Amino acid sequence: MTATIVFIERLDPLSLPLALCHRAVGGKVFYKELSPLFRGRRLEGFLAKGGISAFNFFGRSGALYTSFLNAHRDAVDLAFSRRIRHHFIYEQLRRELPDVDPEVISTTVKASVFNNQHLSYGTSSVPLIDLLIKDHAASGTKMKIIPRTVPGSILLDAYYREAPGVSVSALHAGAHLFIGSAAIIRRAASRIVRALKPARQTTAAAPAAKSRNPYDATILYFPHQSLKYGRFFKKTYVFSPTFPDDEKLCLLWTPDCVQELSRRYIRRFKLPALSVRGPGIAPETTALLKSCAMARGLSVFADAFIGLELLRFYNRFRSASHFFSRFRAARTAYAHYDTLLPPHMVLALTSRGIVTIGLQDRLFQYPYFPNIYFDCHLVAGPALAPQMQAFGDCSKQMIPVGLPRASDARKGHSWVNQRIKDMAGHRRVVVCFGLFPLTDHDVGVYGEDGTSRASNYDFLETALEMAETLPDDFYYVRVKETDFIEQGFAAELVQRIQAKDNMHLDLNIRQMSSYDLIAAADVVIGKLSMIMEEARAAGKPAIYYDPERYVEGIGFLPSDQDIIASNRAELLDLLRRVSAEKNSSPGRAILEPYYSTSLPGGYDRIRRIIFDHGVCPDFPSPELDHQT
After folding, report:
1. Rounded distance between C-alpha atoms, residue 11 and residue 320, angstroms
2. Claim: this prediction has a pTM higher than 0.85
């Protein structure tokens, strides 16, 4: 009897019986993660004794995880062409939007349906599955994949359909879909009951009308959750003294929570702000269901997973369209973070003739969130356009704006600069940006990107070794969060660092911003973060310390030369070679076209594009503007 290898994405109360059944007939069972219910109960060792073993990214190269990016892109295209392109609901959507480019519709559908939990399930499991297939290829065993999510099931089926001996079971994903649907039905019924109840009478006076009606806005601004990103930067640059008198702006929040800090800012400056309402059931959705029943009957849901995903997209799109229809004067919608504006909202805005503008806030995220569309996509530099298009970006315009926060890294505050100089003396200042440790579970699911406890320890130890080897340098070490250090992480190593006269471990990260530190630095070392690219754009030598090979695996950099150190010896060599002079910044010439370090304008350029409703302003270097 041919043995079967079973890979389960999440082992939970629903998938555990499947695992036990396969073990009972001699199958080898592997799982990627345990559900929260099973974690911390010492089950991993017990399961391993029973032949049910963990198999994930923990302890493996970061490049292994990032190798799924191309697989995800390819699987999305395969699933769309095989199961969506000719689906009745998709064809009906295209018929209802004759004035919208079909490529825009297909792009937003792909992103909405398949960029959903894909960083933890679905195609992100492909590298692990391929390892299992390779390890057991000689034995002639069969492979069964049990995904956790519906989109993941669709994508893995598309990706492995032609692979001999590999099958994908939708049973686990379907069970979770059924349970989730029941919960949705209960919530919907509860809302209907509340709506039918008579409103409670009150004698309280009605509140006075606001001075500005948010629905009169000509510009809609989506900052995503908060007007401030932690301690790093603010997103209030749109509100400036140069805001045109004839333009009116409204802040819009997606259904995610809005932080209290943003609420206080809104109240203080009396800014019009609204939350985009939840999906609800749009009348067009009801009509579509009737049309489906009359034209196709239940056969329209023969491919139930795709039918339900498309129906959900259609309903969200129609609900958003109804919401945006109230903004009769709106001409432009601007998203500070391109990949975080829901695709169905982009399509709803586009279908209403509102110009959509999105800022590429993270220049290395386009492979993680493929299939983006904006009427005007503000990108870091023109050389990124072909790479982004290869991952499905079909934006009408791609306008380079550089890395606007690099201007913050250029100026800094004089008192910070003086303080760092006093600490360093006459030594060269090397600022080291680390991360913070995640749990072993999270690293196993999302890959080793420098956030494991082992990687954080290695980063601190490496900084100490560099300080001991190069005593003429002063090493200022900052991590994103300090709680784990204060709670006793690597206590002995931390004591050794604090005892060095040419090192400083920053445990008060509120006092100085990271951009102030960059301005005072001669050299910057760090893990994958936009702060590294902003440092390089500000003219600072910036070196990735990447023993995990995570940065290398993404492949967003055109060359690794003088940019990435994969071990301590390479890092030491680069530190010895690099000059503190800005014009000698390693990799600067290579990366110039990728984020236009010399491009003027910054936030002023972005504001002008917004106020001109997607028209590129007449700034210097017009040859950098790239029309796709």
Report:
1. 36
2. yes
